[in-house]
Design a protein that fits this description.
Length: 245
């Protein structure tokens, strides 16, 4: 049985300030919990009702709680059968990292679903890393983690001062922009940084100063724009195809 203090602490993790203070994040989606366990995430705490069937990869024995307790700690209107608590861990971007391999850079992407989707895209196309500006949605929010699925644990992510980092990229910086060159004409680039801006404002002025060249996806119909995730996937696919792997 959970104490009042435990209930309050677990509920409080829905807010970023409490996640940062505790150094903890939460995942409730059973499929995502299974994905993260398979990816080797060692959760700090695990709570589950009798309805949850733990994957074979689960080493941490869950604390069994009632459905009513799960409802009280859940961050969602409809609680799941599992509530996992992980430790927030951040690493500094190694010096010169962007000069090697493929990097996806997120410039002020504030929608959590888009950030999570972009992590999945980076994972799908085997990008070496994702760098995020501090204004992006919180990487450790449930909405980001759920949208990313297991990619949250598989992709190296770094929160950086994006303009300063791009200034010393050491590789071509590709900015996605409607006024850019046709992405299908993109040549072979072993090392590159793809920068995606927010759907509403595009790339920020400070980031634009360090774009090597702009690319766009040819428009044949009447849609005004593409979702950030869709645009990123098309650009990443063209980079990979040009490399032949």
């Amino acid at each position: 049985m959970l104490t009042k203090a435990q209930l309050q602490r677990l509920r409080s993790l829905r807010e970023k300030k409490h996640r940062e203070a505790e150094g903890l994040y939460v995942v409730e989606n059973p499929k995502v919990v299974a994905e993260l366990l398979a990816a080797g995430v060692a959760f700090a705490e695990l709570y589950a009702t009798d309805a949850w069937r733990a994957p074979a990869s689960t080493k941490l024995k869950p604390s069994v709680i009632t459905a009513d307790e799960m409802t009280r700690i859940s961050h969602f209107p409809t609680p799941s059968a599992v509530f996992a608590v992980g430790r927030i861990s951040r690493a500094a971007l190694p010096a010169g990292a962007l000069a090697r391999g493929l990097t996806l850079a997120l410039d002020n992407i504030q929608d959590p679903g888009n950030v999570g989707t972009l992590l999945r895209i980076a994972d799908w196309f085997a990008f070496d890393r994702v760098v995020l500006s501090p204004e992006c949605a919180d990487l450790f929010s449930q909405k980001v983690i759920n949208a990313s699925m297991g990619s949250f644990a598989r992709v190296q992510t770094f929160t950086v001062d994006l303009p300063a980092t791009l200034a010393d990229a050491g590789a071509p910086v590709l900015g996605c922009d409607l006024g850019g060159d046709d992405v299908h004409d993109l040549g072979k680039l072993e090392n590159a940084v793809v920068v995606i801006g927010s759907e509403g404002r595009g790339l920020s002025t400070d980031v634009r100063r360090f774009v090597t060249y702009y690319v766009t996806i040819p428009k044949y119909g009447g849609a005004e724009s593409l979702n950030a995730g869709v645009a990123a996937a098309i650009v990443c696919d063209n980079l990979r195809r040009a490399l032949g792997r």
